[in-house]
Design a protein that fits this description.
- It contains 30 helices and 13 strands.
- It is of the alpha+beta class.
- Strand 10 and strand 11 form a beta hairpin.
- The protein is globular.
Length: 725
Amino acid sequence: MAAQCCPSLISSVSAVEEVVEEDDYVVIMQSSSRVHLLYSKSKVYIHPTSSAKDNIPGFLALVRPKNASDREILLAWIPESLLEPQDSEAYSKADVDPPTMDGSEDGPDSLFVNAPPRSSISSYAFSVPLYNLYSVQVRPPSLGWWWGSIIIHTKSEETLPALFFHDSESKSTILQRKKRTKDFDPFDHGDLFWGGDAFMSILGQYAALEKSTLEPSIVLVNPDPEDRRSFAPINASVVGPSEEPPLTKVLRDARWNVLEKLARVTRFSKRAAQNVIDRSPPQVRQLLNKPEVRKIGDDFDVARVYLAKWAMGIAEESERARHRVVWSDGYRDILGSAVGDFELLNVDAEVERRNEVGQAEWKAFFDHSGRLSLTVSEVKERVFHGGLAPSVRPEAWLFLLGVVPWDSDAEERKSLLYEKRNEYYRLKRKWWDDTDRQQNDDFWKDQKSRIEKDVHRTDRNIALFSESDTPHPDPDSRFAEVGTNLHLEQLKDMLITYNEYNTNLGYVQGMSDLLSPLYAVLQDDAIAFWAFCEFMNRMERNFLRDQSGMRQQMVTLDNLVQLMLPQLYAHFERADATNFFFFFRMLLVWFKREFLWNDVLRLWEVLWTDYLSSQFHLFIALAILDKNKDVIMEHLKQFDDILKYMNELSMTLDLEDILIRAEILFNHFKRTVDIVDRKTEERKVHPDQEDTQKLPEISPELRQLLSRKIIEQREVERPPNATGG
């Protein structure tokens, strides 16, 4: 079939090319001569479909045919599956150990490979001489897309696939990032080093590159004056008075400016220009360069790139879940009458908050030997509904976090804490006394650098951490000139020691946010360390390299909002806001940036009780939505507006109100599940009764919300070249 469909294609091939017929497709090859491999980047993928299983890994390369000038160098992409073993080895070697850039073919490290295909109808392979390049669209990793990518536009208007840099798999990018770690600021404007940076730098050594002043993502290749004019800004048109709001006018003018410029690009056909737009996934078109999205990424570096990864997965999961959770109005009426209208909550009914547990009441919980005289459930109920007085927290938190067992007496706890102090200092000495590792272990130095940067910006508004009144113990530290204080140094040492305790995870930004309240309350580095270890047993899933833990929580929240706040969820669908980006930061560090300091302490001790659910934090998120749903549905119609509004709730939330709402919502959720289960059983008992109403399927994720068992996920063994978060 291939031979019948391609005569014109075959006749168009130049004399230096050959046509190779494979099973069901044709590959146009360059001449069989070997070419000089100048540059190679591994794990550059083609995404033929929206499904990750169809992604095709390959190498992006620059090769020089024999006697070719710089203009005749070929830019090529070759799938891994198309390479001969010896060529695959050469491409891999050039990836991690680049050849010298003098262009000489006689150098000791020169590599030669078979000439790459010019094009392949099935495998997507291609090669293009640099003189035929018009521009490269560069899209770094961002909150809109997990992988950075480039799109190559040719003067002959060929349609080439977008190339996606899977940097977490590329050995060269991993190595380059390690070298740049000391200069990397996780709170910068998002200029994360990625594979496209290296490629564009190398390409610039063989071709003149100019960034478009109209569209910063477009880089022109060897542009002539007409190219520059096509991508230069135009003068703003003079217009009369307008009734439009200033922001609306700016956005409208920007759109027309882009449209006018596209019309003036004589080198692009309409089809080619449309390809630029069509090739962008919906998530990119929707989220690219939104300031409120970038604001979330600026808070935590895991959000900057990882956020898009799990958001993409959530989109797939929630689409499937939508078919399970959606139910008919008839059964909604039945459930509404049985459960109550959970979209019109009365926060003064059903539940009651109580006074905090004071020192006298806490002591009364124990007998003369210091053994608990109440049940654990009774104590947890009291803490759940009232919280703890500050003076009680240093002792009570150790029970809630599992540092000391509930069934111990005072002497047993004293002995246990003595042992834990000794164990902490033993772990600390493992790195403290190892000067060789401190000086020569790149991973250790990378982790220390990340930890120190975060520690020096964590909770500096709290008196305990605010001063820098102590000389820094390390003269080579970036903070040597500004100084430090004892408590910051303790935080740093505890986080470094945690790496000795949990060797697979590594430090990830956000962990310092979880540690600082523990240390501030306990005021004992060794005991705070073990409290942190226990806390991390449940929080580790938030920091996994594959983000599966965060993704699972977001899928569960998606299902929960569909079930409990269906009108709001429908509004989110209309506003393209079902990705729930605004909850990433909240869930990652348990609302640490959303509530005032003292409220965070109260919230965490409530959550640690697991009194109703080990995932009660998801009902806190649901309560925040319930509290604000009327404003959102009545006034916020676009994703940007919703995201901005949710971000600006930070430090304005009333914790007591949110806790009451969360408990009411949980009670309604539990009754809803019970009723759905009962109706389902009735159908099984009476299958002959006609019932066309649709009940929601309560997903396993939703059922798990009824469990008090803490969900724990552990990081897999750390890959040899992996850095921390």
